[in-house]
Design brief:
single chain, alpha+beta, five-stranded antiparallel sheet, 16% helix, 37% strand
Length: 574
């Protein structure tokens, strides 16, 4: 799935040759990519899943020349997986129903195109194909358990435990190859990688430390070597594990991020790579090679750097773009969504756009961000808008102190959870910001939980978002805190957003105006979902948002008496 710099979206198929990658097919698409799934078939065809308004999921089959044939539609969200080695089985689908059971389906190109195979209690997690069988992670008696599903046997015998892994807290399926299944096994010593062959599990040692994680990418054709991304904060490196000996070899990797997946064939190891100046490309290492090769970076891109800047209780890592923020350039502090996410050194069109506009970008991975160990990520459990907000406030104060009294104050940008956090920051320090852009914010966790779809509520439950923060700012409810927000505010929310209902931004915009706020801009694209802002030079809101963020304090103060009620017209009639 690809998007070019003009914003055009495409389905692409590539052949991975010994001489490098070669694109075979490029088909234009008209749907948003974040909600689109794609499964490449072994014969060169591709299966595409996308959502229509109202939540209906449509499945289309593309042939080798780009011809598109509707296969069917389903009102229940499907997760698509590769097919099994069985006649007519082109893909596998898993649906999680309102009855809290998961159903595994065969997807075929005949009629019926969707055939149920088995039904299991709970939500199914990680999965891998083992020839004509499927391995999945299921919760059995409260414990994540790897199961094998064999559609070729009678229904009563189709589901069996995959391994005899002796783990009190469970094991998760990750990958399979050559009869082996790679598992993430919870042990008393923490999360370990294990290889299961039959009922025996061999645990692997590796560079898993408190401040890094290991993401398995692919097993080689023999199942004897594992390629994994070792993720340390905002960047990742490639490591090769010997499954038998446990030996680990690091492969030189330029600054950037790998994967989350790869392919290892008899033609070599292939994996996506992205760096600050390099949109996602294929990297590859031939069968007899020991170093990765990459497509050269494009010229004219803004480089990025990592800096450790003060947080409330210690330094936090930040990805920095554009001119030196210590000078006189306008600064924007960018907050990621999630909150279980983090900024990386991968190519970021948003930060390239901001840097093109002369903005100095500071993108911190404050507490609550992933990539820095469990303690860092869990700091906000039960306290959304607590430790992470404290880090943002400390960072803003440090930026102001370093730049001196004559420099413009920083602006803040955030999307989704980052938008919620950005608005909290402007309420906590009313005179500390030159402006705030909030894309798809929610007003409070409790209001979002009441309005949201099941996946969003599951995320709030999983990340313990319900807790209250007991400090001078009080409950983290933006409608209650609106009177404290004095800086300019730009709200952008797609009308088709199914993750955070657009009513949250509408209510917040009206509350700010009712509280006497002097400068509120509201935009509600009728054809956009949760990804309301596409960071491309020709996107409708790009120039408006970059100009807004770069606006100096003097202009802000001169315009503080102007109300922009006409900009709320899109929300007024709802």
């Amino acid at each position: 799935m690809a998007q070019d710099e003009a914003g055009s979206r495409h389905l692409e198929t590539w052949e991975l040759t010994e001489a490098g990658p070669r694109r075979r097919l490029r088909v234009p698409l008209d749907q948003e990519l974040p909600l689109t799934q794609c499964v490449a078939l072994d014969d060169g065809r591709a299966l595409l899943s996308w959502h229509q308004p109202g939540g209906v999921q449509r499945i289309d089959l593309f042939d080798r020349t780009g011809g598109r044939r509707p296969l069917g539609s389903c009102p229940t969200p499907l997760r698509l997986l590769p097919g099994l080695d069985l006649p007519g089985w082109i893909a596998t689908a898993i649906a999680y129903g309102a009855d809290e059971h998961s159903t595994v389906f065969r997807v075929g190109d005949d009629d019926p195109w969707l055939t149920p195979i088995t039904r299991l209690p709970g939500r199914l997690g990680g999965s891998a194909t083992i020839g004509s069988c499927l391995a999945v992670t299921a919760v059995v008696d409260g414990t994540p358990t790897p199961l094998r599903i064999d559609p070729a046997v009678p229904v009563r015998d189709r589901v069996t435990r995959l391994t005899g892994a002796d783990s009190r807290t469970g094991a998760h399926v990750l990958l399979s190859r050559a009869g082996r299944v790679l598992l993430a096994v919870d042990t008393d010593a923490g999360l370990r990688l294990g290889v299961a062959t039959g009922t025996a599990v061999h645990l692997l040692d590796g560079p898993r430390t408190a401040d890094s994680t290991v993401t398995p990418l692919a097993l080689d054709p023999t199942g004897g070597l594992l390629a994994a991304a070792v993720n340390r904060g905002a960047r990742s490196e490639l490591a090769l594990y010997d499954v038998e000996s446990g030996a680990v070899r690091q492969v030189a990797t330029p600054p950037g991020v790998l994967g989350p997946e790869a392919a290892w064939t008899d033609r070599g190891l292939w994996l996506p790579f992205s760096g600050p100046t390099r949109p996602t490309v294929f990297g590859w290492m031939g069968p007899r090679e020991s170093e990765l090769r990459w497509v050269e970076a494009q010229s004219g891109r803004h480089p990025a750097r990592l800096e450790r800047l003060p947080g409330a209780v210690g330094p936090v890592e930040a990805v920095v773009y554009g001119p030196d923020w210590r000078g006189g350039a306008p600064v924007v502090i960018a907050l990621h969504g999630g909150p279980d996410r983090h900024w990386t050194l991968g190519f970021d069109a948003l930060f390239q756009l901001f840097a093109d506009a002369g903005l100095a970008v500071i993108a911190p991975n404050q507490r609550g961000s992933t990539g820095y160990g469990r303690e860092h990520a869990d700091a906000i459990r039960g306290a959304w808008g607590g430790p992470d907000l404290a880090d943002i406030r400390a960072l803003r104060a440090y930026v102001d102190e370093t730049r001196g009294p004559g420099a413009p104050r920083p602006a803040v940008y955030g999307s989704s959870y980052g938008a919620f956090l950005a608005l909290l920051a402007t309420a906590a320090d009313p005179d500390g910001w030159s402006g705030c852009v909030a894309v798809a914010p929610f007003s409070s966790v409790s209001a979002l939980y009441a309005d949201a779809n099941p996946p969003t509520r599951n995320l709030i439950d999983r990340l313990a978002g319900h807790g209250d923060v007991d400090d001078a700012l009080g409950p983290r409810d933006l409608l209650r805190l609106a009177e404290r927000i004095r800086t300019r505010v730009f709200l952008l929310h797609g009308r088709l957003d199914e993750t955070i209902p657009v009513a949250h931004s509408r209510a917040l915009a009206h509350r700010l105006i009712d509280a006497g706020h002097g400068h509120v801009t509201y935009r509600e694209p009728a054809d956009r979902g949760h990804a309301a802002f596409t960071a491309l030079a020709n996107a409708p809101q790009s120039r408006e948002i970059t100009d807004f963020l770069a606006l100096p304090d003097a202009v802000r103060r001169a315009s503080s008496g102007q109300e922009h009620r006409p900009l709320l017209a899109a929300a007024a009639h709802h």
